[in-house]
Amino acid sequence: MKPIKVGLLGLGTVGGGTANVLARNADEIARRAGREIRITHAAAREVNPAVNTSGIELCDDAFAVVNNPEVDIIVELIGGYDPARQLVLQAIENGKHVVTANKALIAMHGNEIFEAAQKKGVMVAFEAGVAGGIPIIKALREGLAANQIEWLAGIINGTGNFILTEMRDKGRDFADVLAEAQALGYAEADPTFDVEGIDAAHKLTILASIAFGVPLQFEKTYTEGISKITREDVNYAEQLGYRIKHLGVTRKTDKGIELRVHPTLIPERRLIANVDGVMNAVLVQGDAVGPTLYYGAGAGSEPTASAVVADVIDVARTMTVDPENRVPHLAFQPNALSDTPVLPMEQIVTAYYLRMQAADRPGVLAEVTQILGEQGISIEAMIQKEPKEGESVASIIMLTQRIVESQMNEAIRGIESLDVIAGDVTRIRLEHLDR
Fold first, then answer.
1. Tens digit of pLDDT for each residue in 119-146?
2. Catalytic residue among 203, 252, 385, 388
3. How far is CA 283 from CA 13, 272, 318, in A?
4. What is the architecture of the domain spanning 136-297?
């Protein structure tokens, strides 16, 4: 059987890792795929000398690779929205299968891309777009296909997890750890996508669509970053038996689908609460299987290349299969996707951690609890810290029971309007992840 010819777009961190893994494991990959898989063409502006480019025809024009009639599969590892979108759509128009690690592209333009691929009878594979080397998409789409997925929660950005881990373990401030993450190459010079949750929201959008069979809806994903988390919040959470993680959560309810990324308190005994450093993990609750946890490297050259090459092997295996019998891109048949609504954040029900700075005088706590009581909010636990020497405000930390977000918003507005409260109330959502 003739070899599969791959055209690689981008020879950066992941592209270089993909070339090296395909070359190093060529024999094993051929045994699994049933035929040789060979990168024959690649487009890149620069090539790292550590990348094995033996037998690869190099150029700097990605469209030349996409339009080359010899190439069977296009692997897009450029990233971003453009020109990646045009390249992928052109590859599909040319009748080529596509493998990509571009979560932003899939989250924003996946509906359009999958529709084009369906019409042309080609595959678009994107395992490496979510959680690096962890095969979470394959698990959701195939391994858990017998289940109704009830919810999933994931640590799906290694940079944010590294920062929160360092803040907890070493008592460091956010800005200090962020600077180190940038120096280590974990965070970009502009870290907005990582620390403000946009990267995680791209990934959660994809996971939710596969879990619940709905179209990709990135614009409806609630997104909140970790830049306002202080080491005091991390310490108080520990004292209360919780850890703060930057979590992506999606849950199917009777009213619709929750789709949200934000800092979250998790009980310290949960396995996912003990995922530290740059590692990723996704916890999935299925009605038949119960909870399953997927853990591993969420980024990096060869961990991500592992998922890219696995997708290439999958495509190679199914190239002779009737397109109607392939695994659907979003797990459900395209004409069977549901219009289940995504809930606005104001309708989400969860518990909360609240921290406020209050005047150190009698009656303050009574005023705060009265406002909470008016909104039907019960207090689960509380810590009150004495003022530091020379200061006149004390820290009050509360954990509440579960309540609708709109009621908590109203309560926070009321508390912040009190003349005995200094500054804004810090609010972090809390999930027990047991239902």
1. 999 999 999 999 999 999 999 999 999 9
2. 203
3. 27, 7, 29
4. 2-Layer Sandwich (3.30)
